[in-house]
C-alpha cells in the first residue's frame, strides 16, 4: 500500500463497520436526498447530519456526493422546463471560486472544524434570509440579478454556496436562501436549483477524488444506497403539487435550521 492510500483505507474500514441501525439511518437519509431534490430543498441538511453522524464527517461528504448527483438527475428530468438560466449564469463563476476555497479548506481542516463551520454558516444564512424577506415584495419576478445590488448578492451567495457545497455538500440551504430571497416561486425554484446542483456537484467529483473522499469502497456503499433515492424523489414529486407556496418556504427554512443546529450541537 502506498502512503496515499492509508487515509482512504482507514475510511473504508469505518464505512464497512456500519451496524444494521446505521445502514437503516443512511438509507432513510438517501430517501430524504431524493425528496429534497424534488420537493423541499434544504431537507437534505438532515441527510448531511445523518451521514456525518454514522460516518466520519470528511468521509461522509465523499459518500453523499454521488447520491446527490443521482437526485440531481431525477430533479432535472422532473423540472427542466422551469429553470431560470440568467440567474444560473450569474452564479456559476462565483461558485467556482467558492469550490476552490472549499477544497483548500478541506486540505487544512479536521472533522470538528468542518462540522462547526457548516452549522454556523447555515444558521447565518437563515437569519439573513428571514431579515431580507421582510423587505422583499413577494410578487417580484426573479430578475433581481439585473441590478448592481442583485449582482453583488448573487456573487456573495455563489461563493458561499460553492464553499459549503465543497466542504460538506451543504450548498443546498445557501442556494435555497438565495432563491427565496430573490423571489422565486415553487417550480422556478425547483427547476433552477435542479440544474444548478447537477452542474456544481458533477464539477466537484474530481476535487473529491483528489482529496481521497471518493474511492472504490465509498462507491460500493453508494451503489447500495442509490436504490433509496428514487422512491424519495417520486414521493417529493407527488408532495410538491400539494404544498402551497407559503408552506413550501416555511418547510425549506425549517429544514435548514434543523440541519444547521444538528451540525453545531454534535
TrEMBL record:
User: Is the Cell membrane keyword given for this protein?
Assistant: yes
> Where is this protein primarily located?
membrane
- Superkingdom is Bacteria
> Which UniProt key words apply to this protein?
Cell membrane, Membrane, Transmembrane, Transmembrane helix, Transport
Q: Does the keyword Cytoplasm apply?
A: no
One Pfam match, by short name? TauE
**Membrane topology, from the record:** Multi-pass membrane protein
Q: Which residues cross the membrane?
A: 91-108, 114-131, 187-207, 219-240
Q: Where in the cell is it found?
A: Cell membrane
Q: Which family does the UniProt entry place this protein in?
A: Belongs to the 4-toluene sulfonate uptake permease (TSUP) (TC 2.A.102) family.
- The protein depicted here goes by the name Probable membrane transporter protein
- Source organism per entry reads Streptomyces graminofaciens
